[in-house]
Amino acid sequence: MTPAIDAEGLTKRYGDVTAVEDLSLTVAPGEIHALLGLNGAGKTTTIRMLLGMVRPTAGRVALLGTRVRPGTRAIWARVGYLVETPAAYPELTVTENLLVAARLRGLTGPGPVSDVIARLDLGTYAHVRARTLSLGNAQRLGLAKALIHRPALLVLDEPANGLDPAGVAEIRTLLSELAHDGVAVLLSSHILTEVARTADRISVLADGRLVWAGDTGDLVAQARPRLSVGARDLGAASTALRAAGHPAEPGHGTCLVLTGDHAIGHPDEIATLLVAAGCPPTRLAVEQDDLETCFLRLVGTR
Ligand code: ATP
User: Fold this and answer.
1) Which atom of ligand 1 approaches the CA of 12 most closely?
2) Which of 93, 115, 152, 186 is deepest in the core (most CB within 10 A)?
3) For residues 63 and 153, is the Cβ–Cβ distance under 8 A?
4) To the nearest 10°, the Cα dihedral for 127, 128, 129, 130?
5) Which residue lies with its CA nearest to atom 22 of ligand 1?
6) Residue 197 phi, psi (nearest 5)
7) Whose CA is nearest to atom 30 of ligand 1?
8) Cα dihedral sign for 158, 212, 26, 224?
9) Spacing, Cα 113 to ligand 1 middle (Å)
C-alpha cells in the first residue's frame, strides 16, 4: 500500500538554528499519526516541510505516492490541511466562507458545503459572520475548509487549540470516522494524554529530533505500574529475585524495578523472599507514572 506520507531525512536549518534534524516519518492510509512535542520541538516546521510550504535543507517528502517539489500541483487536490490559526474572511458568513473555499477547490453545487457544515456541526452558525465566531468555532470552520474536498490525507497543526472538552471529543470522533473511511491523518500536539486517545501511532520530537516513534499502546504501556525495591546490596537482591522468578531491572537511583504482575500485586511476598535471602528491603513501593511524566521523561525534561 502506498503510504499517505513518506518522509525521509527531513532537516531544516535557519542559520545556526536547526529546527528539524534528520526526521523520517511514514503514515499509512487510515492511520491517525500524532507528532508530539513541547513548544519549539519542530512540529510546525515539520508539517510545513511536508506540505511544501517550507523548503527542507535536506531530505525528501512524498505524499500519496507523489514527490513534493516546488511546482508540484496535482496532489494538493487530495490533501487537506489546517496549519496555525485558521484564517477566514471576517465579514462573510460561515456558509459564504465555505462557498469560497469550495470554489477555490473547483467544487460545484451546494452539496460539498452543506455536507461539511453537517459533519462539523456548524449548522447553528451557518449564517453567522466569521469575525464573531468563538475560537473553537473558528477552528471548526478551518477544519471544514480542510475537509470540504474530501481529502485522502488530512494534516492538522494543533487541531484541539481553543476547543473546549466537548469540542475536543467531537474532533476525536470526526478523525476516527475519517480514518475508518481510509483517510490518513497527521496531527500535532503538545499534550500526550490528548493524542493517546486519538492517535494510532505517535512520533515524539524534542529539539527537532525524533526521540521515540511507535504504537500509542507501547507509549502508554510505559506508564504501567512497577514495584521499586531498595536494598543495601542490590546485586545480591537482584540474584535472589531472579532465582525466585522475578527478574529485576536497575531503576533510577539505588533501586531495582520489577514489572511482573505478580510482584506488583504481592509486594509482601517480595519482602519475605528478600528477608529470607539475607538482603532485606530498605524500601518497597508500587509506583506509577502518569502519561505526562512519561512524555517529559522521553523528551528529557525529567
Ligand atoms: P510550537 O508548539 O511552539 O508551535 P513547534 O514544535 O511547532 O512549536 P517550530 O515552530 O517548528 O516548533 O520551531 C522549531 C524551532 O525552529 C524553534 O526553535 C523556532 O524558534 C525555530 N524556527 C522556526 N521557524 C523559524 C524561522 N522562520 N526562522 C528561525 N527560526 C525558526
Assistant:
1) 16
2) 186
3) yes
4) -110
5) 19
6) -90, -10
7) 14
8) negative
9) 34
- In this predicted structure, what is the pLDDT of residue 33? 98
Ranges of the chain whose pLDDT falls below 70:
85-86, 301-302
pLDDT value for 301: 65
Enumerate residues lining ligand 1, CB below 6 A: 14, 17, 19, 37, 39-45, 190
- Centre of ligand 1 to C-alpha 265, Å, is 45
49 CA distance to ligand 1 centroid (A)? 12
- Burial class of residue 99 in the structure, from the number of CB atoms within 10 Å of its CB (0-12 exposed, 13-18 middle, 19+ buried): middle
Give the position of cell 521523561: 297
| pLDDT at residue 123, rounded to an integer | 92
Q: What is the pLDDT of residues 76-102, one digit of tens each?
A: 899 999 997 668 899 999 999 999 999
Distance CA 282, CA 249 (A): 17
Domains of the chain in sequence order: 5-85+148-221 (3.40.50.300), 226-293 (3.30.70)
Which atom, in ligand 1's list, is nearest to the CA of 190? 2
Q: Which atom of ligand 1 is nearest to the CA of 42?
A: 11
